[in-house]
């Protein structure tokens, strides 16, 4: 370093600063991309959660309908012989 002039040292310092700034810009770009991916992921997970809730509600309704049908069938099984005997 003793052989380098003040101008050479300044030039090298400027080069290192430029490289550092470029690296910082790249890292910032990657961070923004990661943030965007995270936001999209959260949005999709929220939508999927809503879909699962709707599916669960549909399954609950099917289960309720099945119970009502079973009750109706049991009632029919009891009443049908009575109707035949009339």
UniProtKB/TrEMBL annotation:
<dbReference type="GO" id="GO:0043005">
    <property type="term" value="C:neuron projection"/>
</dbReference>
<keyword id="KW-0771">Synaptosome</keyword>
<dbReference type="GO" id="GO:0031629">
    <property type="term" value="P:synaptic vesicle fusion to presynaptic active zone membrane"/>
</dbReference>
<dbReference type="GO" id="GO:0031201">
    <property type="term" value="C:SNARE complex"/>
</dbReference>
<dbReference type="GO" id="GO:0005484">
    <property type="term" value="F:SNAP receptor activity"/>
</dbReference>
<keyword id="KW-0770">Synapse</keyword>
<comment type="similarity">
    <text>Belongs to the SNAP-25 family.</text>
</comment>
<keyword id="KW-0677">Repeat</keyword>
<dbReference type="GO" id="GO:0098793">
    <property type="term" value="C:presynapse"/>
</dbReference>
<protein>
    <submittedName>
        <fullName>Synaptosomal-associated protein 23</fullName>
    </submittedName>
</protein>
<keyword id="KW-0175">Coiled coil</keyword>
<feature type="domain" description="T-SNARE coiled-coil homology">
    <location>
        <begin position="14"/>
        <end position="67"/>
    </location>
</feature>
<dbReference type="InterPro" id="IPR000727">
    <property type="entry name" value="T_SNARE_dom"/>
</dbReference>
<dbReference type="GO" id="GO:0016082">
    <property type="term" value="P:synaptic vesicle priming"/>
</dbReference>
<dbReference type="GO" id="GO:0019905">
    <property type="term" value="F:syntaxin binding"/>
</dbReference>
<dbReference type="GO" id="GO:0005886">
    <property type="term" value="C:plasma membrane"/>
</dbReference>
């Amino acid at each position: 370093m003793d052989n380098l002039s003040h101008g050479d040292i300044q030039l090298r310092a400027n080069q290192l600063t430029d490289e550092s700034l470029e690296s910082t810009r790249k890292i910032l770009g990657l961070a923004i991309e990661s943030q965007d991916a995270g936001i999209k992921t959260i949005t999709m997970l929220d939508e999927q959660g809503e879909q699962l809730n709707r599916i669960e509600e549909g399954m609950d309704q099917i289960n309720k309908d099945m119970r009502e049908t079973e009750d109706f069938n049991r009632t029919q099984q009891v009443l049908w012989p009575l109707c035949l005997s009339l």
